[in-house]
Amino acid sequence: MTTHRLDLEDATLREWDATVLQSDAESGIVLDRSAFYPGGGGQPPDHGTLLWGGVETRIVGTRKGDEFYLLPAEGDPLPPAGTAVRGAVQDERRSMLMRTHSGLHVLCGVVFRDFGALVTGGNMEPGTARMDFNLPEVPPGFKETVEAAINAEVVADRRIDVKVLPREQAFAIPDIIRTATNLLPPDLAEVRVVDIVGLDAQADGGTHVASTKQIGRLQVAKVENKGRGFRRLRVKVVD
In this structure, how many other beta carbons lie within 10 angstroms of the beta carbon of residue 38? Predict the structure, then answer.
């Protein structure tokens, strides 16, 4: 990859200067520096714009391949290779995705701590998300109990730290993999760890808020039985 990932260094960054390295209507646009989150781990890609020479190119998604390709809106002009551009991430969408993603980590931490269940899948859109758990038994009042517990962690204003650790050091952290299947490539030398201090530390590549209080109030909208001991929790950011 030739794109320097600014989004991994500073999740609050919304505007930056860059140079176009590649530009093609089919494959997309490659920048030397980008704060667009390309999608992955259940978190969808960012939207935004590139400004260049008095022209605006809307970015409606990204694609990971041999490079991080920015996907322009259909019909928008393409900045040629070598063009200096000003990138901007759509703030409202990204900020809500950060709150949602951090909320899912709180949910994951609470369900693992209180019920010992691992994650089997998940997905999110801005403000809404689902997370699946290998939870054979659902006790009475489960939905209300989980909602109260996750909001207690939000109110506790726990710090959320992001750090990159050598693989051996990361795997020394107890329960660093919170999914039922370890999805990390075996040749990965460094592991990015998102740590909700005192609650949940796990390998993750997404963008997050700085503390649980910034998530806002969470609602467990629904608990679904997906069969064979699997439960799906649907959550919303409601405040």
Answer: 22
Whole-number Å distance between alpha carbons of 36 and 4: 11
Residue among 21, 32, 28 at smallest CA distance from 81? 21
- The beta-strand segments (E) located in 115-166 are 119-125, 128-134, 160-166
Question: pLDDT tier at 166 (50, 70, 90 boundaries)?
Answer: confident
Which CATH number goes with the domain that contains 30?
2.40.30.130
> Number of structural domains, the chain?
2
Task: Write the CA distances from 131 to 54, 97, 124, 166, integer angstroms.
Answer: 43, 15, 9, 28
pTM here? Answer: 0.92
Which helix (H) or strand (E) segment is 36 a member of? none
Sign of the Cα torsion 198, 200, 201, 207 reads negative
